[in-house]
Amino acid sequence: MRAGVIAACSALLLLTGCTAGTTDSSEGNAAQGPLVRIALGVDASYAPLYLAQQKGLFAKAGLNVQLMQTEGGPAASQAVQAGTAQLALQSNSTALSLMAASDDLRALGVFESSDRYLKVVLRKGIDKPQQIKTMASIPGIGLYSTYSYLRYNKIDPASVKILSSSAPEIPALLTRGSIDGYVLFDPWVTKGVEGGGHIAGQIGDFGVGFRQWLVAGRTWLEKNEDLAGKVFQVIAQADEMVTADPKAAAEATEKEVKIPAAQTVKALPEINFKARGFTDEDYTNDKKLVDFLLEQKLIKKAPDLQTVMLKGWYEQHVRP
After folding, report:
1. Which of 50, 240, 255, 277 lies deepest, with the highest CB count within 10 Å?
2. Which architecture, in CATH terms, is 119-206?
3. What fold, for 10-114+210-279+301-317?
4. How far apart are CA 277 and CA 107, in angstroms?
5. Helical spans, DSSP H, in the chain
6. In whole angstroms, what is the distance from residue 108 CA to residue 87 CA?
7. pTM recorded for the entire structure
8. What is the pLDDT of residues 71-102, one digit of tens each?
9. Which residues pair with 114 in a beta bridge?
């Protein structure tokens, strides 16, 4: 991923809407140890967790884990803040926004990243960026990507009307002609194309990317670092399995959240499923993202990245 990449999210937050709920992720029970709920959204980017659930990987590791589906956006980490989940999968852009307002979240490491998963979609008749008058975006990585796309094309974002919306609503706005374009992930890219739009690029073209983090509650983590490390180890294993067998991952995703396997197979090659700890480049890129959030007055103060992003934690607790 190029040096200018700022992660994200999901995002991406990043992510597709669904009805909140909790699903057993294995044959696990209380006899295997404390219950750990992992809050996450619903789309192909979560394929490693769906595969881990279908394969019973958490139970095989002696863990009692449940997956807790949320409506996406900040809801996953908010579930951790509320104590209804112990861990969350969250884009860095969304997590950092929450961390700026509260000191109760910690990022343990990266479980996936991409500079291709989000794409620019323009409506019919808009053939170049300079024709754009109105766009729509989701918060976090969506807004950051929108501004980056416009600035890359030497367009002042202040000259474009940018509507804040939810991902499911945006393709319909494009089809109706209410907006000229947007930057999103599938299935909303495909829906925009089906409605007459066309793909005009991907976020890596203008130096943006996203990362999904594993996030924990600070107080819970202080007492359960070994347990969190074991859970992250299973997620890292599932990452490797998705890369080795995307078809199996797509089938697991369809069984878990009813996303067509063909759609997931198409999306998986655009995501780098590799768990890892934080690097100096991560801190540099996330500093740029925080500066953007401050510039847009989306946060009142910057979180201390060295405090909320636990450098070396992954290497110590997951892959010694």
Report:
1. 50
2. 3-Layer(aba) Sandwich (3.40)
3. D-Maltodextrin-Binding Protein; domain 2 (3.40.190)
4. 10
5. 47-55, 57-60, 75-82, 92-101, 141-152, 170-176, 188-194, 218-223, 225-244, 246-257, 261-267, 280-295, 305-308, 313-317
6. 10
7. 0.83
8. 777 899 999 999 999 999 999 999 999 999 99
9. 210
